[in-house]
Amino acid sequence: MFHGAVDEALPLLGDVGRTGRPALYARWLRGVALGACGRYGEALEGLEPITADAPEYSMARCLRGSLLRQIGCHDLALIADREAMASAATPGAAIEAMTGLAADAVGLEDVPAATQSLSQARDLLDRVASDPHTVAVWWRHHVRLAWVECEVALLESRYSDAVAHATLALDAAEGATAPRHVAKSLLFLAVSEIQLGQPESAIPRLRRCLMLSTSMGFLAVAWPAHAVLAALLKATDPRAAHDHFVQASAIADTVRDGLYGELATRWDARADIAALHKEAS
Fold first, then answer.
1. Domain for residue 251, yes or no?
2. Which of 65, 78, 176, 236 has a beta carbon 3.0–4.6 Å from 104's, enabling a disulfide?
3. CA-to-CA distance for 267 and 265, rounded, in angstroms?
4. Domain residues for 80?
5. Residue 242 binned pLDDT confidence (cut-offs 50, 70, 90)
6. pLDDT per residue over 59-114, tens digit each?
7. Are 6 and 216 in contact (CB under 8 A)?
8. What CATH number should be reported for the domain holding residue 69?
């Protein structure tokens, strides 16, 4: 799940029983895998049976928030992350929820709210991860928190800080041998370097990101990586840029096919998706 190709985890999760705690945890893991594969509608549907009386409820709400953000529904994600925070019973769940709330605030361009949630999450993570014997178990929290710290820095045009945060995320993901998190960290780092005026270093990072994401089924990372690389190459290598636009557009269509109702409507209304399809035509 976290240290290999997530699509290979899906058949294994299907063998887990359908009742009890193991089944609920398997539902959460399946949601993570489906989301990483860009199958957001299936992922969200699979989380619904995890109700408020289950210990896994907070992490399920937090995952729901993450999936909704990736579709572009930051306002709906905010509701889910508030529910995750209200039901968080462990430090790990609280850190996840606060990180999600900060990411929601970034999407809503509310920098003060994002900064406050990040500060609370960072303070708690620093406390619980201070024991050298257990620090390794917190790698995922460190990576996700650094991603959002990078996003806030980008929003505030602090591009050097954004590069630093993305580099920390990449180092932590590589240290944990977590390829999906490595791929997404490479994407954050490349975008930060582009904003800093260093496109020459961003290009190989994007290509490595695509190598990981396309070979291991991480479609949720692959399509924005294709799009960013296409925009970067458009002036110097238009043929290669068009190929990347086509790849990104095709993946975006695959994502759209798995959405329904309001989520599909919102996806269709996204200006960045419309621009992507136009470039690919």
1. no
2. 78
3. 5
4. 1-128
5. very high
6. 999 999 999 999 999 999 999 999 999 999 999 999 999 999 999 999 999 999 99
7. yes
8. 1.25.40.10
